[in-house]
Amino acid sequence: xxxxxxxxxxxxxxxxxxxxxxxxxxxxxxxxxxxxxxxxxxxxxxxxxxxxxxxxxxxxxxxxxxxxxxxxxxxxxxxxxxxxxxxxxxxxxxxxxxxxxxxxxxxxxxxxxxxxxxxxxxxxxxxxxxxxxxxxxxxxxxxxxxxxxxxxxxxxxxxxxxxxxxxxxxxxxxxxxxxxxxxxxxxxxxxxxxxxxxxxxxxxxxxxxxxxxxxxxxxxxxxxxxxxxxxxxxxxxxxxxxxxxxxxxxxxxxxxxxxxxxxxxxxxxxxxxxxxxxxxxxxxxxxxxxxxxxxxx
Length: 297
Ligand code: GDP
Known about the structure:
alpha/beta; eight-stranded mixed β-sheet; 11 helices; binds guanosine-5'-diphosphate; GTPase activity; nucleotide-binding; signal recognition particle; EC 3.6.5.4; cytoplasm
């Protein structure tokens, strides 16, 4: 297992005898540990470097308060800076879904958890906000994925658009819009096809769908355990189709969640939710404080 940052830092400061204020040398030594801890938590190198620089500016010359050790003090500065970086202006749990029917476009690579997350989010909107939700699968390449969404819909009591074979994704999207409008739904969610790698066909398809429905939210679903890859995927999707937020899945795994920090720092997009299991209720609103604690170990 990883050594926690607090443990590392108390080791560092035990060897130092300075008192009163954190000297530049103390801080430098501590920051080396912070950087290693961030990298171990899967934060990308440029993001970790930048982050450490900001912490250094805040920590140097700070008086050591009597009640805490220098190690604890640095941990607190790092924690606060993590939370500040991860926190945006928006309320992560509040999606822009007024003006019914509001389209939500779900995008991402295959296997990232897109279909499961679509169902989790639909359930949440229904149960917590009393929304009438319609889900539609646009994954014409994998009939199994379409059926998977239908099965999940039945499980959670959310309607799915009837499957019509041979339709193009953009036509399914238009049909979903029509049915959502006529059926008086508040929200319709479009679960787009994923590929193993980002390719042009995938992006063109998502673009066509986006142009057809003008989504209120375009949520990228990515596996939070894939670290730097997740950030690259987010950048590409944002460049090509524009994303409004991110859902990090598999945050119930062993990973330390550093992808969240890199994601926010690199793309500037809010992380809205985190997936914490396979069940349809295993979706939590993103909480910067909790992820910060996890990154620190
Ligand atoms: P898609 O190809 O992106 O639509 O991915 P799926 O929704 O089919 O998910 C792929 C696998 O990941 C399934 O076995 C899901 O149950 C699982 N999965 C999705 N989200 C999570 C999560 O947050 N935690 C865990 N442990 N498994 C997840």
